[in-house]
User: Fold these one by one.
Assistant:
Number 1:
Amino acid sequence: MKRIVVIVLMMAACLGNAQAQLHLKANVQNNHLWRGMEVSDGIVLLTDLSYTMVNDHVTVGLWGGCNSEGSYKEFNHYLNLKAGGWGFALWDTYNFSPGASYNNKEYWNYSAHTTGRFLDATLSYRFQDEKFPLLLSWSTVVFGRDRNSDNTKQKYSTFAYAEYPIYQKDGWKVDAGVGGAFALNRSGENAHFFGTTAGIVHISLQASHDLKLGNYTVPVYAKGMWNPQSNESYFQIGAEIIRF
């Protein structure tokens, strides 16, 4: 599996440098939310270093996250492909937070039974009609720490998501989203990567705005997220502080 990931990234890098660009972004937030879960609380710094090529159709990147307490640490590799309204993303995710209950000390371990990382594949489509800009996506954990309790089979936990902009005016944008999760291979169990049973695990409402500070523009955003299955909710506020 490690060889496959390396080969995919190398192939993407060799596709050519037409309109190639290097990008760096950083966000500061009061927490890190993902698919109905609070991955980390506290002040969180999220960074994204990426290289786009083939007229912006292909992106390879490195993504990292940490919090102010040092209890959350994450470092990922990713590949994004896009054409028209279609998108495909493959994320190789490694959360090596000190308090992790899984293997968080072997970065290059790609053994299915012992790895602490996971590979997440997402196919998405954004409708191109300006009157109906619905986003649909299907994400499946295709490898890694998404196993049954006996550690004998991959569960292929899946997150299906829909998002729609419900308000756009005066520089403000409000997006509403809903996501459900389940396992393609239950292996006799109800639990999956995102929850305890199949069902809705994510409802969100996010408002974003470009804040003008002199000659600078700072994108800011606030999000409410609810998880009906776990009976939990979270509020997030953040800003993009670096973009090159």
Number 2:
Amino acid sequence: MTEETPGFEEKPDVPSGATPDDAAPKAAPAQGAAPAGDSSAQLAGLTAQLDQVRTALGERTADLQRLQAEYQNYRRRVERDRITVREIAIANLLTELLPVLDDIGRAREHGELVGGFKSVAESLETVAAKMGLQQFGKEGEPFDPTIHEALMHSYAPDVTETTCVAILQPGYRIGERTIRPARVAVAEPQPGATAVKAEGADEAPAAGDEKDNGPEEG
């Protein structure tokens, strides 16, 4: 058996011609340590990626806002079109009922609106009014070609402008929309009446002056 000499440690074999430092174990390089230049590059890359994400987010947000605005405009347009179609449908229906309403008006003028016919007629007029139908046209109001249709024409000395002197058929409107103008007879001022009135007005003070300049009492 081989005996070990106490007090001596066994040293690794050193090749001939090598220094003692070559026999010493070398320390392993540190794990995870990166150069400072690599860290700056990574930070710059992350910043660029963040800027790209922010830009993309802004674009998507703008797209969403634009789509929302277009949708709101679409809803308003659809609602406006729906109201317009409804008004046109109601106007068409009420236009077909105008001859019936004219018959009811004539019957009322002649005292023939009595009994069950009166009840039905009044119910029809109430329903038409609820749907927005309004009657217009009165005697004595100035003639307006936008809402009146003149069927008869005459002259009158007691009017100062073209005036509706008779309502042959009342007009009807729904809101601001006229569905039938009032059919009227109109009268214009008598030709020369204005000049005569003006001359009379000028002569009136002269007559008064003659009265004032009468013979004085002795």
